[in-house]
């Protein structure tokens, strides 16, 4: 097998949980093959460069092996090679998300009566 549909490949390589999610991402223009927006039915070949944007992160990968069969994650990782720039960008974004979470401070469930009153006063200041 030297080529396979894009949505099947994205599903087999475990970028998306289902083929329909992969197909939907293609419809929204979140997938590019060799710099061009791609439809789900486009065929992927070895050495194609894919740019994949999902809610979680962005990937830039080179297709090493074409497969339409979904297997274990360890096998799926052998289907592609992520570029260094993409890996560094994802790690930087993960570190930024972690830092933002630390700045938010702890949350301890429901606000107390006092907290709710402070929130109501704050909201009342900015009502039109």
Give a topology summary.
Elements: E1 3-5, H1 6-12, H2 19-27, E2 31-33, E3 36-37, E4 43-45, E5 49-53, E6 58-63, H3 73-76, E7 80-82, H4 84-104, H5 113-125
Antiparallel strand pairs: 1-4, 2-3, 2-5, 5-6, 6-7
Polypeptide structure, described:
The protein is elongated and about 65 Å long. 42% of the residues lie in helices and 20% in strands. The protein contains five helices and seven strands, in the order E-H-H-E-E-E-E-E-H-E-H-H. The chain is α+β, with helices and mostly antiparallel strands. The mean pLDDT is 91. Helix 1 packs across helix 2. It has a single domain, classed as Structural Genomics Hypothetical 15.5 Kd Protein In mrcA-pckA Intergenic Region, Chain A. It has a five-stranded antiparallel β-sheet with strand order 3-2-5-6-7, covered by helices on one side.
Please identify, by name, the CATH architecture: Roll
CATH class: Alpha Beta
Query: What is the count of β-strands?
Result: 7
What's the shape?
elongated
Largest sheet: 5 strands, antiparallel
The CATH H-level superfamily is RNA-binding S4 domain
Binned, the helix content reads 40-55%
**How many angstroms does the end-to-end distance come to?**
63 Å
Radius of gyration: 21 Å
- Overall mean pLDDT stands at 91
String of helices and strands? EHHEEEEEHEHH
Main structural class: alpha+beta
Strand content: 15-25%
- Which strand order does the major sheet show? 3-2-5-6-7
Number of helices: 5
User: What's the CATH topology name?
Assistant: Structural Genomics Hypothetical 15.5 Kd Protein In mrcA-pckA Intergenic Region, Chain A
